[in-house]
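Anyone? Bumping this.
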Amino acid sequence: MSETGKPISRIDGRLKVTGKATYAAEFNQPTMAYAFPVRATIAKGRITALDDAAVKKEPGVISVVSYKNAPKLKPLDMQAQAKAGAAFLGENLPPLQDNKVYYPGQFIAVVVAESYEQARAAAYKLKVRYAAEKAATDLKTELPNSRKPAKLMGEEAQVNGGKTTAPLAQSAHRVENTYSTPAEHHHPMEPHATVAVWEGADKLTLYDATQGVGLTGAIAAYFLGLQPENVRVIAPFVGGGFGSKGLWLHTLLVAMAAKAAGRPVKLALTRQMMQTNVGHRAATIQRVSLGTDTAGTLTAVRHHTDTYNNLTEFFEPSGKQSLVLYKAPVREVTYGLVKLDRSTPTFMRAPGETPGTFALESAMDEMAYKLKMDPVAFRIANHTAQDPMNGHDFSSEFLVDCYRIGAEKFGWSARSMEPRQKRNGKYLVGYGMATATYPGGRSAATVKVSMTASGDVTVMTASIDIGTGTYTVLAQTAADALGVPVNRIQVKIGDSSLPPAPLAGGSQTTASIHPAALEACVLLRKELTALAIADSSSKLYGRASDEINYTNGNLFIIGDEKKTDAYADIMSRAKRGEMEACATTQPVSGAGLTVPSALCTPREAPAEQNSDDKHYAFHSFGAQFAEVWVDEDLGTIRVKRFTSVQDVGRIMNEKTARSQVIGGVIFGIGAALMEATDYDKRWGSPVVRTLADYHVPVNLDVPPINVHFIGKPDPHISPIGARGIGEIGITGVAAAIANAVFNATGKRLRDLPLTPDKLM
Amino acid sequence: MRPFNYSNAGEPATAIATVSANPGAKFLGGGTNLVDLMKEDVMHPSALVDITRLKLADVAKTATGVTIGGTATNSFTANHELIRKNYPLLSMAILAGASAQIRNMATNGGNLNQRTRCTYFYDVNLPCNKREPGSGCGALKGVNRNHAIFGWSEKCVAVYPSDMAIALAALDAVVHVEGNNNVKRTINFADFHRLPGDTPEKDNNLKPGELILSIELPANDFAERSYYLKIRERSSYAFALVSVAAAMALEGNRIKQVRIALGGVAHKPWRASVAEKWLIGKEATETNFRAAAEVELKNARPLEHNKFKVAMAQKAIARALQGAMQGGEYGLEG
């Protein structure tokens, strides 16, 4: 009877393919006006004159908001923000508060008009003069000014500095190389957009393309000086985020513009603005050193990353996987950081692991080749079942199975150790593999479940479906927990007024909200059971609750299945039109939100379930295998097939899970072969500006992708046993492809993306 | 995008008269490039004259070849039996360009009139002599991996983006145009587009108000041996790093006639005339193809980031000629 795990199609799929799913920019309001932002044209300095007289004369213009007249926002204050759950403003720059410019493309004004076209045309007439200062625009140029940051997302950023120098020098074999990855942009299909609607001076509704309605509401409330409960954020459908849909300045800008205009305002970003105003993955230069003894056992791992940031504490954590993978007596993971006057870097699908596994897993391949060991065997020989940093067992870990199953399914044994051995017409054929890994995160979440006497169930939580399948898998979990068919379950998410849930980031949604959904359903069932037991006209009257099970909308006596009582009958006899239950669950360490919702007061204290990070380390693992065909004359690389084996705990829905991994692999193919944003050093601005020149894979670039799941529930993360799956699919992909290119051609390419010029 | 007037022309003469009378007016075909440029404020015509309803959309046989209409779509043209049979090089080139959706909208005349995809041209905050004469060339000392290796000037290093036009250059097409007061003339394809010189703002030699009525394809002996090779950063919907249109006619195994045109390397379709001359009368062998490519590329002048294009173009010429020998049975991937 289990619905969980079944490959059912998305319950919201029909709405999406018929155009009836409503996205942020489609929430048109009566009397709505349109905003178009103006961006800075210098990298650093200040505005000396801003003349909007000509703008105001343009047809349809309602107002121009700039630092000269913008409403005052609450200033940055990390402690206060953290307390308010408002720490993660995309860039630490409350908009339009002064005349300073920190990067090219920074929003410096917003024009509001009766139509989008009028706002855009009028915006060209804004006259701005600047006093430009010398800007730092290039990572390599600024490296001499690099500093050693102490902290990275709350963790130690310099781990064992210098401690691998001697062990590496003494190693029998050593591989030491520099790998580089470019700036990349998220470019979800749906551009960022917000519609702001004020009700009086202190109540605001935002229809926003966001990955977290709660997060966006908290940040907007903080900076606009509103009570958190007076900001409602609505996002029933979001067309992808990949880390770019936190709260960026346009959401505050449109709220400010709507206030100034005294009417609802819409602001939708252009693709060009998505290159400068909603984050990107920073470029990295990584130096990886590996040492082994004569038998191929690792003696030391060193991973140093140089990268940049601006207006944020965050920087690309590309050493992360090097703290988790492989057994080695000593490992050193360090960072150098420079500040560039470039738009703000942020989280992007598997922040850290995506560029980091390219470097580490390329180096592992280089070492295997040096040792004349099979790359799979080399990894298995150096496998660790414990977190190398704290010695904790991994909560549930089948990485060696991933390698073995992957190798078998892929046909890895047909690979030759030596490169250039396999040809097919004008192509050189190569095989490559790499390890995938991503943390298994979980946060607190609250879910409310209600049931009507007619048997319709509603599951409610302020989570979000950014295209991942959240709607569908929540219905499956509730269907199983209540014994109700999936088609009787309605899922309400994407609204900050619902019970709180974490943002859809860090691959934690499934792991966080399903335990709470299960708990809420269990509470609801318990109450139904108690009603039946107490009701003399029930066939279950007077029985013990542990004698009773449930199926198909009924309770029944175990072993005497004719003795049933339908939920509907129980409710009708008890004169209950609707019943509801609500639960909050959280991991033991309790990280995450525990804000009680006005809508939902859990009847029981938060269930402290599993997720015992004092004894276990939570990580997902996988193995990626690629076959590439290289046309050496022309420099073109085609991925011909790909096998991905993933150990991510329980699979909640075979179909949506597979789609997540396929999407991750495609993202990885993009990173491997084509994605990059180049910047002009003189002006600091990107010279890649549209989806015509920011290349992501087209269908013809995507080979058959064979996905296999280990599927063993993680007994320690939650009673559900599922870890997240949104990010791990991309990790290791670029290395698997680059390693396959080496196997095909004998050329080791260490600078992504592997565009045709790299093979010339 | 700035406000503009829109009108729909019923007759070529009306369209031409309207555009001739207003220096700010532009013809609007499929709009696949012009509308983007307007959205980005790179171009801001005061008026658009829609020419898609003009009766210039035929592909037809003539006494000396085939003529394709100025407003026929790229898709219609590429898939037309006369083109597939007699000018497979043109079919291959058109189908290597853009995406199916864009080709369904884009017109043949518009294809020849499309602007460079140089990102300095597109970013109105950066200098570009083509967009704003006198402002300088941003790409010359900037990010120029996609730029020219032949025929560039200090004023402009942009490349012309069309695939279709590379085939038309190889096929010695003739462009039929009409200007104001019914003045009609023809322009040989080699003279249609320009090198940047001191006036990169001029992409081609059309006079103000002149409309492309049709493109004439002279009969040739190349149908059996032609090939369009395009090297790009993804399999579809990407502009060429380097492309080659190659066509040959043989006498025994000797090369009687050969045409080679390169895309992605210059401000106009680049006829590899040095290589062509070198090959005439020689055996059609891979060694000779490579040798011819080498002599052609001796004249290349790469920029800081596009030195790879020299080796790439050299190999691509040899590969495209081999593809032509196999009569297009070579697979579009090269």
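Late reply, but here is one note on the structure posted above: The mean pLDDT of chain A is 95.
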